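Sequence in, structure out.
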Amino acid sequence: MIETLFHAYTPLFTWIGLGLLLSRFAPDSLLKLLGQSLYWVGVPLQLLVLARHTHSSNGRIIPGIAVGVLLLSLVLALLTWWGWQWLINRKIQPEKASLNLPNSSMRTSLGSFILATILGNTGFVGLTLTQVLTSPENSDWAVLFSVTNNVVGTYGIAVLIASYFGQRETKNHWWTQLWDLVTVPSLWTFFIGLNTQFVELPAVVESGLEQAVWVVIAFALLLVGLRLGKMKGWPSLELASIASAVKVFIVPMLVGLGATYLGVTGEQRLVLVLMSGTPTGLSVLILAEVYDLDRNLLASSIALTFIGLFLALPLWLAWFS
């Protein structure tokens, strides 16, 4: 098992490490360009390919579970934030009330905290873990969960949250969030892929599309390394630690217990736990570039949730496999 996990995580360390090395020389404009390119081209292409290869008899059950996990994570994120604010306000020293965060940044910090808690890296880490830790007959569960997480979570709920909490020069209105949601390219490419499954493409084209997905993943991981390398200290470490604990420990534990209560056991339960407990998704950095969110908080959450995954994974295998 250790050998398979090492093989699964090799690309993570390779591309993130390369980004860390290049961050000393890469200008901020390159990170902005990379984030925008992934948002408008890379991720839509990935969802197009995944949608074309999604087939399962659980076509309604798994998406419903994935949406339920997103809503559970959202509620836990809000409750945790309010609880943290209450504890901070109870402290004697008033200078600690904002945790060294200017008032103007608290709004973006809240939005970033929510995104760090609800969005998981199901498209790469989740699918990779389920591939090496479960049998092939359960792969459709993982794919459907990942696609739903990306479409409904990353480019549905998350776009609304990022648009609402992001720093804008213009005033936010309900039609602003609606327009941001309608114009998300990933939603369109997903539905195009879903409705073109019957179209047979030449083998060369299919192979090229599958390889392009891995190129997208590599650039997304590279962006993580670049953003981590640009961080100046860990000003958001406490907030990121709280969000990370909810993301990789509390949410998957509740999902595993809930699945057990509903009679879902074995590898199928493990798939749900693994997919709900993946590290914070790389897409939050893309949204941060597009909507000007708290990049340090999101980058810190990604780093800490990757560390947390290594600690949590043996527990999930022992309790829910």
